[in-house]
Write a structure and sequence with these properties.
By secondary structure, the chain is α+β, with helices and mostly antiparallel strands. The strands form four sheets. Strands 5, 6, 13, 14, 15, 16, 17, 18 and 21 form a nine-stranded mixed β-sheet that branches. The protein folds into two domains: 192 residues, 3-Layer(bba) Sandwich (FAD/NAD(P)-binding domain); 131 residues, 2-Layer Sandwich (D-Amino Acid Oxidase, Chain A, domain 2). The protein contains eleven helices and 21 strands.
Amino acid sequence: MEHDLIVVGGGLIGASFARAARGSRVALVDPAAPASSEQARVPEDLDSRIYALSPGSVAFLEQIKAWQEIAPERKCAVRSMRVRGDDAAACLEFDAYDAGVPELAWIVEERELRRALWQALATQDAFVHFAGSACTSLEADADAVHLALADGRRISARLVVGADGARSFVRGAARIEVSERSYAQSAVVANFSCARPHFNIAFQWFQGGPVLALLPLSGERVSMVWSTGEAQAAQLMAASPKELAHRVEQATGSELGALELITPARVFPLHCVSATRCVAPRVALIGDAAHVIHPLAGQGANLGFQDARVLAEVVAGAGTLRDIGELRLLRRYERSRREAVLAMRATVNGLFELFGAESGALRRLRNIGLNLTGSLPVLRNVLARRALA
């Protein structure tokens, strides 16, 4: 057998797992990418899609020698977070110093992360990249899993890892059921220059349904993620650059002064996806193939990176004598991730429902809750540390 494992999906989570599994013979099938994608030069202008990475995710990226490939000026530390409710007086603040850590998170562009991961993979032994060819069939038997590609090639391994997103081919081929619902919102993302310094503070406003975040970037720049109803998202996308900046200034109370749009806005529909299982015989799911949550907590990518880390540890722990596609072994990964994923999904969906409720009593309750939590340093620090994993 020419490969030990096959990864389907060359995005951030699939590439990070492929890198973490070094020591195994890894094939990565990336239907969306041309063969030269891993060598593409990152433009100087900012990518409008960014991620807030927890210290746990950064530690994982350091371990696989990818974090070191990102230039210091393309990543920004978050040292404080300020959360406001739909009552202007309701505020909750997290501080890295109070939590006993250097930073709460790091803000990084998606394509910088992708470039760093592929630069690390370029030096990896026993790594093969199958680019630009879709998967057409997946068959598992007692000894191996066999994958057919649209260009006629067939590849086999002990294990296939589905990192191919919310519409996962691997998940469907393995007949793993999935529940899905729309949040009836879209996320509008864009980057702005700001007149006032952000002081490495991440800002978030709950607006009675919509959630607006401004995340610090290097220099006097911020990245906006505005999760809102589809009608308002369409209005934001139709606005001129000057009008969009003005609307964000108004919604944030001019917290950072005058804003100027520096990257075109993009929009992404939001939905919740939950696979009933994340393993099957010779199949494991990671990242969005297993779970998709609302971006209000900024934890989707972090859950995916921790999936990749844990599955790589399980595979490495199997040694050379045990079959890494064995279902009993893969269930170790599933058990290890179940609690963290369920807890984060419940937290995010609970916040989404609570802050989207129109009841006057619930409005008062959620704003009192923000103020109460902010006045209890121990509880505030417990919540901050949970987000650092």
